[in-house]
Amino acid sequence: MLSVVRDTLLFILIIGGLALPFMRAAARLAPEERLGLGVAGALLTVYLFATAIYLAGLDPRWYWLLPPAALLAGLGSRPQLAALWHDADLRAAGTGWLIVAAWCLALTALITSYAGGRWAGDWHEHYERALFFVKHWPADHLFISVYPLPARPPLANLVTGALLALGQPDYARYQVITCLLSTLVIFPLLAIGRMFGGTRVAWLLPPALMLSPLFTQNTTFAWTKLPAAFFVLAAIPLLGRSLREPRDRFSLPVAAALLAAGCLTHYSAAVWVVGLGLGWVMARRRQPAPPALGPDFIVAGLTVTLLLATWFGWAVVRYGPGSTFGSNTAVGATQGMTTDTRVQVAANNLLRTFVPHPLLGTSEPALLQSDPAAITADWFFHLYQETLPLAWGLAGLALGGLAWARRQDGATPPDGWRGFWWWALPMTVALGIVTHTQPSLWGLVHISLQPLVLLGLAWLVAGLPETWRRLPGWGRAVVVVLGLVDFIGGVALHFMVQADVPARLARLSFPARANFAGKVRLNQPFLADNLAGSPWLPLLLLGLLLALAGWRAARADAPGLRTF
């Protein structure tokens, strides 16, 4: 546990310290936007530093330059740090992140092995990818004996590897670092919540994330989808600013760089580049006599080209264009497929994403199991992770319908945004489904559409105080009951099964058994194993954190809470 505290403090020092200069450079932006942009700048700094160390073939001890560099950056930004401390909303944002991060770490400390749907192997692959850059493995290494290096983009792996190198690079530390990296998505969500008119998002968003099955399951499974969502979501407020202030020469290039960083983290972010780009162009066209876009596009294009070249340029030289662009599973799976087959796969995936599996009678032999708790947990898992209507949860759907009805008066979002969303979101959803070239029995929300779910959650939280006040007593009771169903089915059961995998192993599905076999081959303890198999400390911490987050949310209107 001392190692967890040490790694968390190092994470805060490096990301927080390196974020401050970027926040100072973006001083004219709204506070929450500065916070998200600063964190993005810090992540890109670590990525570029780790890339330079790897390409130069330097010893991993060079990564120890990061803590003093972050400390110096923080000391050089003392006025900015003081301003952060005196800004009540930003203090609340930082406190909210600490609560959410501690919650997700406590959940991670329950996991003896991964279980949930068909999720298997990715956690081991991304751990190997982090070690690849730290230990300078041979360039032709096949990850989990299957994938070459260009099959996945490297940003999150390089960042995680850099932090992992500041100590023993064991898997338990990798779990901690990856979990913390995933929780950073809260910062752009705070800015988006403010953008939608929410004034108490910093107090209400943490418990909403803590009770979200999609968020908690993804922060605790060690892969790169939420870090990619971070960059996508961080770009959205800047795109909005460039629409509201057409002569702004800052926001569009920075938003483009953030979207490029998302693509360097997970290739699924590319569908958001197309969707958000289309929405931005169509919204800009509606503006009366918009200024010339040439300078904006030139700067944005140069920024994106330079950033993408840090990966694709080297990969093309080292692996060739065929492996660089063809080894990704989305591209490789299309080889030999006819047009009719691709259309059939896309139609099937569209159906499975929008229609919950109980209505389709979906079953899969590989997922058959005899453990009652695991069967129930997986039943909910497929609903919350892979079906778009239910990815917000039952309570989220109920509140979302009421919030949508309330906002038909046009108060939010602004008119410029309205056209943006009507183009951007349908295009992104369509591309997020059709670009997945393998047939899915359960749905595809978890692949490309996690930013959409989190975006909707921020919108919902922004209007929650007014929506809740308008609910009658019976309506509030229904929402609370649905929220309990979401938490029990999507969070409590999921982690209860993962906390006891060895005892349940013979009764679990094939992917769960494969994950445990991978853990045995890895021959490294998980974070839960370092607690000597006792879940009481994480459970106690979870109870305290949930009570704290609930108290903050209940007292969000109290003036005294503004200091917390």
Shape: globular
Whole-number mean pLDDT: 90
What is the helix/strand order? HHHHHHHHHHHHHHHHHHHHHHHHHHHH
Task: Specify the structural class.
Answer: mainly alpha
Share in helix: over 70%
Beta-strand content estimate: under 5%
Number of helices: 28
For the largest beta-sheet, the strand count, sense and barrel status come to:
none
- Rg calc: 23 Å
Distance between the termini: 26 Å
Number of domains: 1
Annotation, overall tally of beta strands = 0
Low-confidence stretches: 408-412
Can you summarize this structure?
With 564 residues, this protein is an all-alpha fold.
Core attributes:
564 residues, mainly alpha, 28 helices, globular
Question: Can you walk me through this structure?
Answer:
- It is globular, with a radius of gyration of 23 Å.
- It has one domain.
- Helix content is 70%, strand content 0%.
- It is mostly helical and 564 residues long.
Q: How would you summarize the topology of this molecule?
A:
Blueprint: H1 2-25, H2 31-56, H3 66-75, H4 78-86, H5 88-108, H6 122-135, H7 155-164, H8 171-183, H9 186-195, H10 201-210, H11 213-219, H12 225-244, H13 251-265, H14 270-285, H15 294-326, H16 329-332, H17 339-354, H18 357-360, H19 372-386, H20 393-406, H21 415-434, H22 445-448, H23 450-462, H24 464-470, H25 473-498, H26 501-504, H27 510-522, H28 536-554
Helix pairs in contact: 1-2, 1-3, 1-8, 2-7, 2-9, 2-12, 5-8, 5-10, 5-28, 6-7, 7-8, 9-10, 9-12, 9-23, 10-23, 10-28, 11-25, 12-13, 12-14, 13-15, 14-21, 19-25, 20-25
